[in-house]
Amino acid sequence: MDAGALRVFETVARTGGMNRAAAALNTVQSNVTARIQALEAELACPLFERHSRGVVLTAAGERLLPYAQRLAQLLADAARAARDTGAPQGPLTIGSLETTAALRLASLLSDYVVTYPGVDLALRPGTTAELIEAVVGHRLEGAFVCGPVAHPSLVEERMFTEDLALLAAPGVPSLEVALGDGAVRIVVLRAGCSYRQRLEALLARRGIAIPRLLEFGTLEAIFGCVAAGLGITLLPRGLVGPVWQAGRVSVHRLPASEARVSTVFVRRREAFVSSALRAFLDRARAAFAAPLVDGSWEQRLPVSGRFGRGRVGAGAKGADHEDGVEPTSMFPTDIGQDTGVGEAAARVQADAGEGGGVTDHGDDEAQVERLTALQQRR
């Protein structure tokens, strides 16, 4: 059994067919079939069950697959290590919570791509659950997520700690009033968002176990809907002011035990750490080293006016995003301001129903258009 045979086996398992594997390996089907048959003969057990639409793994194939995947990754890491000269260069794909990208990463990314123009840096925003899955699945080299993580396959390093706050409509005087008689509606990101989980736990401790729900795909839409009086949300307190205009929402402090949250950087425990990633982590540690009086963190790196030859973005143009971590805007803007979103609140609540929820995963412009259209129909 050699590495080449296991590579063919892993490709067939991943693509689900001999023809598709042959296309992925740039060879002919007969060669793939012969390699699989030889491997099955060597192991004295069938690895695939054949059917009209392709193949599925047998029990023996299921047991073999993790080893084949680990070997494929080990060989890929070995090739990267051999080519790594010590100078940061080549692709570097990292993930981040959208709040971290909006509030913490601007100057860090700007400085990094100017300092290392040979690195093609791509940023993939997502929820904590999505980003952890993408790192474990080798689709990201690392990611900023809400900690602690405690995953056996990952190494985590704390980068900074910040305070969460409950955000409600402007004019709401206190946390008690925001929670009302328990009939609250939460405005949140999709399942897997760590702030959503914390908000649900916070409400559960106060006897609000099953809150009503408005689910959106971006922070911009969440902030606009909270400002319009549609519900409450839980986000880093530092977003109000630096990123979003103060006064558009009311900000309610929480007890320290519920407010404090750490953001950690996770990477695969046994993966090769490229010079590009090592340099990025060095600069990230320096960037998050100086606490400010308000509890947020100052990045001690200059903000550059241009990116030089390096580039930073949410993935290359035209890239395939089947990994489930979709590129989106890093820098939230004030949606809903001067658009009459507040006047549409009652109509959106009527659409949601007394006990139901609204889910909207469209882009920011589509969400704004939808809320504006609701206002116009009133």
Describe this structure in words.
- The protein is of the alpha/beta class and 378 residues long.
- The protein contains 14 helices and 15 strands.
- It has 3 domains: 3-83, Winged helix-like DNA-binding domain superfamily/Winged helix DNA-binding domain (Arc Repressor Mutant, subunit A, Orthogonal Bundle); 90-161 and 262-313, 3-Layer(aba) Sandwich (D-Maltodextrin-Binding Protein, domain 2), CATH 3.40.190.10; 162-259 and 333-377, Periplasmic binding protein-like II (D-Maltodextrin-Binding Protein, domain 2, 3-Layer(aba) Sandwich), CATH 3.40.190.
- The chain has helices spanning 3-15, 18-25, 29-43, 59-83, 98-103, 106-115, 128-136, 175-179, 194-205, 219-227, 256-259, 275-287, 345-352, 364-377, and strands at residues 48-51, 54-57, 90-96, 119-125, 142-146, 154-168, 185-188, 212-216, 233-236, 250-252, 260-268, 290-291, 297-298, 311-313, 357-360.
- Strands 3, 4, 5, 6, 9, 10, 11 and 14 form an 8-stranded mixed sheet that branches.
- A hairpin with a 5-residue loop joins strand 12 and strand 13 (297-298).
- It starts with a helix and ends with a helix.
Task: Give structural attributes.
single chain; 378 residues; alpha/beta; Arc Repressor Mutant, subunit A; D-Maltodextrin-Binding Protein, domain 2; eight-stranded mixed sheet; three-stranded parallel sheet; 14 helices; 40% helix; 21% strand
